[in-house]
Amino acid sequence: MLAATSGRVYKRSMPPPVPPPLPTQKWWQIHWKWLAGLGGAALLCLFLGVSMVSMRWLTGRLKGSEPYRLAMEAAQSDSAVTAELGTPITQQGMVTGAFNEGNGFGNVVLTIPVNGPKAQGTIHVVAQRHGERWHFSVLQLSVEKSGRKIDLPIAKPAPK
Fold first, then answer.
1. Mean pLDDT over residues 102-112, rounded?
2. What does the DSSP 8-state code read for residue 137?
3. 78-98 pLDDT tens trace
4. Measured in Å, how far apart are the chain's first and last C-alpha atoms?
5. Is 106 exposed, middle or buried (0-12, 13-18, 19+ CB in 10 A)?
6. CA 128 to each of CA 11, 89, 132, 150, 156: distance values in angstroms, whole numbers, following the listed order
């Protein structure tokens, strides 16, 4: 059928069909990329947190060991070391190394960064435990500024 409006003729047509409803999706189906990114970030934070706690624990174990204590005492009481570094001598930075002890035996390898008012250095420690005493095969300070290496005397610890 034709309709006339102000001199023009239009053909009546049917309205377009109504599209079928879109399938409903759950929130996570729509925003899965956000969830993947947040999940990855959470896993990264968890990994970094566990790593930091492990490093703190390991450093605390190394710094709490008898060879560490004896090495620091030897460095602080040696006149050649105090002449090179000055006083007070403090541990600075992260202690690194390996520590294994059990059943009256053990071994330790430590690198201890130290600092004084005049210079910085590194104490190198290699020791073995047989019975109740630690026996040091290396106990030496390397001074960064001069490159000098100073062998440290070790006081005999009292047996446990």
1. 86
2. E
3. 888 888 888 888 888 888 888
4. 113
5. middle
6. 103, 25, 11, 20, 14
pTM of the model: 0.65
Average pLDDT, whole number, for the chain? 83
Number of residues assigned to the chain: 160
Strands 105-115 and 8-11: unpaired
Ramachandran angles phi, psi of 25, nearest 5°: -120, 150
Query: What value, to the nearest 5°, has the Cα angle with vertex 136 and ends 61 and 107?
Result: 45
CA-closest candidate to residue 126, choices 114, 112, 145:
112
Q: Which residue in the block uniquely carries the two structure tokens 């929130």?
A: 27
Contacts of 20 (CB under 8 A, 6+ apart): none
Q: Which helix (H) or strand (E) holds 40?
A: helix 32-63
Nearest partner of 97 among 132, 129, 65, judged by Cα = 65
Q: Do residues 95 and 108 make contact, with C-beta atoms less than 8 angstroms apart?
A: no
- C-alpha 117/C-alpha 103 separation (Å) is 41
Name the residue with tokens 């710094």: 63
